[in-house]
Amino acid sequence: MSRVFSGIQPTGNIHIGNYLGALKQFVDLQDEHDCIYCIVDHHAITVPKSAEELSESIMNVAALYLAVGIDPKKSIVFVQSDVPAHAELGWILTCSSTTGELSRMTQFKQKSKERESVPTGLFTYPALMAADILLYDTGIVPVGDDQKQHIELTRDLALRVNGKYGEDTFIVPEGRYMKSGARVMSLVDPTSKMSKSDENEFSRISLMDTPAKIKKAIMRATTDSDGIIKYDIENKPGISNLLSIYSAFTGKTVEALEQQYDGAGYGTLKKDLVEVVVESLAPIQEKYNEIRHSEELVKILKDGAERADAIAQETMKRVKKNFGLGIRL
Ligand code: AQP
């Protein structure tokens, strides 16, 4: 049985892109796999933020993990900085990666583009992400489409290290991408992905948004002017995005939706989508409010960190031995 590992950065409000691209798969996988889900707070500090904001976000993401249906009896849920081996293996893999391959990462290029000075962590974070995954002998990594390049890098690093230091060092993982929802686009600019850190709050729908905010964001979503409800990413990115979101929430195929809305206006599609999203998020919001400030949440995270740490330490023994690190007689 392959182990599953994935994480989400506590960098703001989790949105429906994170949910449809990643979280939904996390829940589906836990019945058949041994799953580990992490709140990757070391990644969140690649772009500096205040301590209050970060600790608030960590607990918000943890509560959302449980609210969407991750069951701590089945899966390990923990905060990355509670298991020091992530940073340790992160350094080892930074040393196994090259500046050439890290500078080819599109996320790095995008995130560093508008900055005058670029934090080093933003550059090296794919090596830390590889460490997060490889630390747990992971076989499957459920993520959104935007992470494909980082998963490929993780595989390259694992193969490179195995070739040099021993085939037993790492398991080479595979990415797992959803068919629909793998890449949810911004509602304002449907050619760029929906993102937590987009300055325009109407570009996204966060899982805790009120029905009024959801309605506003969807009704004003950017579309085109030809009035035809058809999936065509190239020429109709806005409508295609709305159809994908609709499909991912309801399980209806895009083709079925095109038929259902044949001849209808964009307003009708948008109104129905508001209803679909509001209804889908209501039970998540209810569970979130129950658990967010509970002692139980803290207990689950502490217990998760202990269990994750035990697995991570075993991997580190093997990695250090293969690399020749530490004291040895
Ligand atoms: N728009 C998206 N569509 C589908 N999946 C997405 N994911 C992110 N955005 C979309 C998936 O969500 C998981 C967690 O992402 P993350 O928080 O680790 O980092 P990110 O990809 O950088 O997400 P954001 O929302 O864009 O955050 P910021 O703005 O902070 O960078 C991943 O599996 C990702 O694929």
Any overview of this molecule?
The protein has 329 residues and is of the alpha/beta class. The chain folds into two domains: 209 residues, HUPs (Rossmann fold), CATH 3.40.50.620; 88 residues, Tyrosyl-Transfer RNA Synthetase, CATH 1.10.240. 54% of the residues lie in helices and 8% in strands. Strands 3-2-1-4-5 form a five-stranded parallel beta sheet, sandwiched between helices. Strand 1, helix 1 and strand 2 form a beta-alpha-beta unit. Helix 3 packs across helix 12 and helix 7 packs across helix 8. The radius of gyration is 21 Å and the shape is globular. The two termini are 36 Å apart. The model has no long low-confidence stretch (mean pLDDT 96). It binds adenosine-5'-tetraphosphate. The site of adenosine-5'-tetraphosphate (AQP) has 20 residues, from helix 1.
